[in-house]
Amino acid sequence: MADTESHQLQFKRELLKTLPSLRAFAISLTGTHDKADDLVQEAVVRAWSRQDSFELGTNMKAWLFTILRNEFYSQMRKRGREISDAEGTYTEQMSVHPNQIGSMDMKDFMTALNKLAEDQREAIILVCASGFSYEEAANICGCAVGTIKSRINRARGRLQELLGIDGESDYGPEPHIAAVLRHTVSV
Q1: How large is the average pLDDT for residues 94-123?
Q2: What global pTM score does this model have?
Q3: Could you give the CA distance from residue 167 to residue 165 in angstroms, rounded to a whole number?
Q4: What's the whole-number mean pLDDT along residues 100-111?
Q5: Which of 37, 82, 131, 160 is found 20 to 30 A from 64 (Cα to Cα)?
Q6: Per-residue confidence at 160, pLDDT binned at 50, 70, 90?
Q7: How many CA atoms lie within 13 A of 70 on its CB side?
Q8: Is the dihedral of CA 129, 134, 136, 137 positive or negative?
Q9: How many CB atoms lie within 10 A of CB 123?
Q10: Domain annotation for the chain: domains and CATH numbers
Q11: CB 25 within 8 A of CB 68
Q12: CB 64 within 8 A of CB 43
């Protein structure tokens, strides 16, 4: 037990003696005193937690400099993968609506869709959901293109009425997120 305490005391003395050199090296790597102090702190914490792997009598300064250098490069690699987003602009773009809200919205939409007149429902499903052109939908339904356009227009109006939608802000993302998305799309 006394041997372990002696080892820790000697380790601590060597470590403290090396701190000024370690800090100077950290400043040369980071370029700023505050980042250097953080880097030195990380290196000292790592060294302290691994003091059992250090052999007294070997070069403590070289060992600590290696730890500090490795920590610096680890932080640099990490920063290379990170994006600076102080205002949260990028973070807001990555947000996703909770599934339960989408499920409830879809259920409401299906209920409203089923309340449409059959010809309107058929037209809106062919063009808006299935991706057919107005001409293709008119051929499938055996009517004029203008009739399909009219049915779709009436169907959209009726769906808005049934769902209580007055404008774009009534569906999709929350209003502030919708604004970010509109800005992103227009950029």
Answers
A1: 79
A2: 0.43
A3: 6
A4: 78
A5: 82
A6: confident
A7: 10
A8: positive
A9: 28
A10: 2-80 (1.10.1740.10), 99-186 (1.10.10.10)
A11: yes
A12: yes
